[in-house]
């Protein structure tokens, strides 16, 4: 066994050191994980340039860029907050239905496809942001656009909706 007893401190440590003046102030988003997950693809679509700048700064800093990259991080936060504000302004009902579904279903996207479709359509119609899943092969229908979902606990391999050629892709889109 252990030679000493474990010690658990029940206090929260807060660093009260103010940030340097050259780092712009920004209000935090204030959303929990479900709304952020629901809006994540749209945040990624609009804020990609800011995210890339932030990640490049972090990479070039070699682990010492917490303060050096704060300016880029604040730009990412402001951009994400603007996306959330626009979604709340134009698609509040669909957004709320989708993130509440995620909240109720352990944040598993496949359980919330029926709430996701109207949300994606509303965001595209009003904000011109489209959900694109990175790394999706060009000849495969993205998972959120499939008519029949394939669930891990249900073998539907005979009903796959994976077109294998460009001709089938066009045919599948025409029937959808």
TrEMBL record:
Main location, first listed in the record: mitochondrion
Pfam families, per the entry: CHCH
Entry keyword set: Disulfide bond, Electron transport, Membrane, Mitochondrion, Mitochondrion inner membrane, Repeat, Respiratory chain, Transport, Ubiquinone
Subcellular location: Mitochondrion inner membrane
Domain CHCH per the UniProt entry, residue ranges: 91-124
Coiled-coil ranges (or none): none
GO biological process, one term: mitochondrial electron transport, NADH to ubiquinone
Single GO cellular component term: mitochondrial inner membrane
General function of this protein: Accessory subunit of the mitochondrial membrane respiratory chain NADH dehydrogenase (Complex I), that is believed not to be involved in catalysis. Complex I functions in the transfer of electrons from NADH to the respiratory chain. The immediate electron acceptor for the enzyme is believed to be ubiquinone.
Family label: Belongs to the complex I NDUFA8 subunit family.
PANTHER family according to UniProt: NADH DEHYDROGENASE [UBIQUINONE] 1 ALPHA SUBCOMPLEX SUBUNIT 8, NADH-UBIQUINONE OXIDOREDUCTASE
Name of protein: NADH-ubiquinone oxidoreductase
